[in-house]
Structures are given as structure tokens and as C-alpha cells.
Specification:
The protein folds into 3 domains: 100 residues, Rossmann fold, CATH 3.40.50; 67 residues, ATP-grasp fold, A domain (Dna Ligase, domain 1, 2-Layer Sandwich); 193 residues, D-amino Acid Aminotransferase, Chain A, domain 1 (2-Layer Sandwich). Strand 9 and strand 10 form a beta hairpin. Helix 2 crosses helix 11 and helix 3 runs parallel beside helix 4. With 399 residues, it is of the alpha+beta class. Strands 9, 10, 11, 12, 13, 14, 15, 16 and 17 form a 9-stranded antiparallel beta sheet that branches. Strands 3-2-1-4 form a 4-stranded parallel beta sheet, with helices on both faces. It has a 4-stranded antiparallel beta sheet with strand order 5-8-6-7, with helices on both faces. The longest helix has 18 residues. It has 13 helices and 17 strands. It binds adenosine-5'-diphosphate and magnesium ion. The site of magnesium ion has 2 residues, from loops.
Length: 399
């Protein structure tokens, strides 16, 4: 034990964190908000750190510390007042996480976050540990990007090593009849921020699924039923639990998620995004060590929602049952739903959407709609996954 470690830390680590205590969350976006609501429901206090004091979690938190992801002083302040700390975003610096860990258990911890928050490290880690990933190269310059495209011999998607999400920090090269000339390479390089990136062969996808796994500090592990995900413009459009894939693929996907969680000695949630290619191969796309958009439906689909599960992991409580209760679909509501072609804002017809059977509405209280910005989601239950999905899409069409 290091000399600088506070005296009560061992005691703090040794016991489950029981309701009444405060939970610290790095990030106050919709994921932090929904985790915070779950924590509140269980009787915890909620402290949030976010650069934006008007963040979605601000409405439900006891405190918001306005600070950036690299602010170790603010991280210490967050953790000092909390009995456990968790996160909703990958970008929190490991320096901040390490600092927070001097004051309270941080779950998931800095070691795993260091691997996941850099796409290059993450891909290399998956490949090194024998998990199936699609063909990829790493590029640190336009020249390396050019060789990567040549070696992969097909259309590629470049992804910046850090900071990308919802398709941001990504560029496509060589799709359709577009030439991969000097100008195209320079543009792609600029689109990923003129910095190190992963270059992936663009795969023919049959389906996308994700598998949420939760692992407690003592190694207890729960794997959710896979979700099936549909993306538009590289942003999740809708998602349904359970995924309509053969039982053998479900087993295979869940085993991969379990193995990744165990290899990392995960403490917390991990969403494993996967591709099923048209030839039936299962590949890991990327990892998200937090609640995931594709499991928003778990509040209604499963015995224990991903948000409560995240809090249970952070607090070292027994994990909740993840069995399927009823098929549930969600559809994201992006700012585009609010914005007219001429840029003016109109309130969507939520009253109309809610006439559809089984449908519920969740909004994140974001004040300004922007194109591509996640403002909320609709969810729908159904007797089958197809019915749940049809209902949620029907409801969305009424907006
Ligand atoms: P993000 O961090 O933005 O979610 P992803 O790597 O998950 O980044 O990419 C977003 C989406 O883009 C994926 O869900 C998938 O639909 C598409 N995509 C990404 N990589 C590939 C690929 N190699 N082949 C085909 N589609 C891809
Ligand atoms: Mg993704």
C-alpha cells in the first residue's frame, strides 16, 4: 500500500457500498443521468463530474462538479465525497481515474480504461488475446494510410484512435467507384484529425449485435441476452432485445463477452459490439466499458436494467438477474426529429407516438436539438422482438 493512500481506503474497499452513501459518476450525459436515476431509486446520493453544468444528469444529481476529463484535482474532489465512483464515458483520463482511486474504489478501473480508450490499443489487445476481429491496420501518416488501403485491398473505414463516437472521427475510403487518390487520402487523414488511426476493411454485414456483460469485484459475472442493432449513418437507429440470431451464435457471442470481461478482470459493465458478416462469421467491433445505447431497452426487457447493474457493480452488491422478461425495442430520437429543413425547431408529436400500444418515452432534457445529437428514445414491448420493433418504429414515424 502506497504511503500517500488515505487511511480509510482499505476499509472503503472492503465493504459493499450501501444505500445512503454517495456515488460519483464521471460524465453527466444521458448514460450518467440514467445510471444516476437508478442509483437514486436505490437510495444513493449522486455526484456527477461533467464539463457542462447543464448536462442531462444535472437535473437528477445532488452535485455537479464542472470540470474536464483531465482535471485530476476535480477528480479527487469527486471521489473524496463519494463511497464509490463509476463512469459513463471512455474519455476520462487515466490520471483522473488514478487520482480518484486514491479516495474511493473506481469501477471500472484505470488499467482497463487505458486499453479501451485508445482504439489502436483496444484492437491490438483483442487481436493479441485471440478474440476475433476483422482485418485492420494502424496508420500514423497519410503514407501509412495509403499502404494500409493497399494491403487491405478493398473499401476501408478509418477511425481515429481517440475521441470518436457515433461515427465521428471516421472516414470512408474506396467505397463504390470513388478513387483512392492523393486527395482522397489527405481528406480521410484530415477527417480522423490528422492523427493515429485504425484502418479497417469495410465488411459486408448481415447483422450487428451487442452483448452486455457485468462483472462484480469478486468475479461474479452476468451476461445479458444479445441485442440486435440497426445503424444509420454510423449512428444507432434502433435496437431490440433479444437479437434474432441462431442459438449457437448467441452462445458464441456470450462466451466471447464473458472471456473478454474475465481477461480484463472487469469491475463494472462492458458492452461488446459485434458484427455478423454475410458469411456468418462473428467478429468483435468495439468495446464500451459502461451502459450502452443498445441496452436502454434492458429497463423493460430484463429483470435488472443495465443502469441498476452498473450501480450494483460499482457498489460491490450482488449482481441482478439478467433474464429476459419481455422482448423490447428502442428507437433513438436524434435532434433531427426536432429540426425542420429550414433549421427551425418544432416539438415532435409525442402525444401521437404514445398512442401506440406498449410504447414509452424517455427524454434526456437536452435543451438544444442538433443533427445527430441523441435527445431521447422511445421504447416498446411486444410479444415478439419483431412486434416490439414494429411498434417502436411505428411510434417514431408519428413524431
Ligand atoms: P462508434 O464509436 O462511432 O460507435 P464503430 O466502430 O462502432 O464506432 O462504428 C460505427 C458503425 O459503423 C458500426 O456500428 C457499423 O455500423 C459501421 N462500421 C464500423 N466499422 C465497420 C466495418 N469495418 N465494416 C462495416 N461497417 C462498419
Ligand atoms: Mg460503435
Amino acid at each position: 500500500m502506497s504511503g500517500s493512500m488515505p487511511m480509510d481506503l482499505l476499509a472503503k474497499h472492503a465493504r459493499p457500498v450501501l444505500p445512503g452513501a454517495a456515488i460519483g459518476i464521471f460524465g453527466g450525459g444521458q448514460l450518467g443521468r440514467m445510471m444516476g436515476i437508478a442509483a437514486r431509486s436505490m437510495g444513493y446520493k449522486v455526484h456527477v463530474l461533467d464539463p457542462d453544468p447543464a448536462c442531462p444528469a444535472g437535473y437528477i444529481a445532488d452535485f455537479v462538479i464542472e470540470a474536464g476529463w483531465n482535471d485530476r484535482w476535480a477528480a479527487a474532489n469527486l471521489a473524496r465525497d463519494c463511497a464509490a465512483v463509476t463512469l459513463e464515458i471512455e474519455q476520462v483520463s487515466t490520471v483522473s481515474l488514478d487520482e480518484a482511486a486514491r479516495w474511493a474504489p473506481v469501477r471500472p478501473g484505470a488499467a482497463m480504461m487505458a486499453v479501451i480508450q485508445d482504439r489502436i490499443e483496444q484492437k491490438d489487445w483483442l487481436a493479441k488475446h485471440g478474440f476475433p476481429v476483422g482485418p485492420y491496420r494502424v496508420a500514423h501518416s497519410t503514407e501509412q494510410l495509403a499502404s494500409a488501403v493497399q494491403e487491405l485491398a478493398g473499401p476501408v473505414i478509418t477511425k481515429s484512435a481517440t475521441g470518436g463516437y457515433d461515427g465521428r472521427g471516421q472516414a470512408k475510403l474506396g467505397f463504390g467507384s470513388s478513387a483512392v487518390d492523393g486527395a482522397a487520402l489527405r481528406k480521410a487523414w484530415e477527417d480522423v484529425g490528422s492523427a493515429a488511426c485504425v484502418v479497417e476493411l469495410a465488411l459486408q454485414l448481415e447483422k450487428e449485435i451487442s452483448v452486455m456483460v457485468a462483472r462484480a469485484p469478486n468475479g461474479e459475472l452476468k451476461v445479458y441476452p444479445p441485442a440486435e442493432n440497426f445503424h444509420e449513418n454510423q449512428i444507432l437507429s434502433w435496437s431490440v432485445i433479444p437479437a434474432g440470431v441462431p442459438e449457437t451464435l448467441v452462445t458464441e457471442a456470450q462466451q466471447i463477452a464473458r472471456d473478454i470481461a474475465d481477461t480484463f478482470a472487469l469491475e463494472g459493465l462492458l458492452a461488446v459490439e459485434m458484427f455478423i458478416t454475410t458469411d456468418g462469421t462473428l467478429l468483435v467491433n468495439e468495446l464500451a466499458p459502461r451502459p450502452h445505447n443498445s441496452y436502454h431497452g434492458s429497463e423493460r426487457a430484463c429483470v435488472t436494467s443495465q443502469f441498476e447493474q452498473a450501480i450494483r457493480c460499482a457498489c460491490d452488491l450482488p449482481l441482478g438477474d439478467v433474464a429476459l422478461v419481455q422482448p423490447t425495442a428502442i428507437a433513438n430520437l436524434l435532434g433531427d426529429v426536432w429540426l425542420q429543413d429550414d433549421g427551425t425547431v418544432r416539438e415532435p408529436a409525442f402525444d401521437q407516438a404514445l398512442t401506440i400500444e406498449g410504447v414509452r418515452l424517455t427524454l434526456y432534457e437536452k435543451l438544444k436539438p442538433r443533427r445527430g445529437r441523441k435527445m431521447g428514445h422511445l421504447s416498446a414491448v411486444g410479444s415478439t422482438a419483431a412486434e416490439a420493433r414494429d411498434r417502436v418504429l411505428q411510434a417514431k414515424a408519428k413524431l
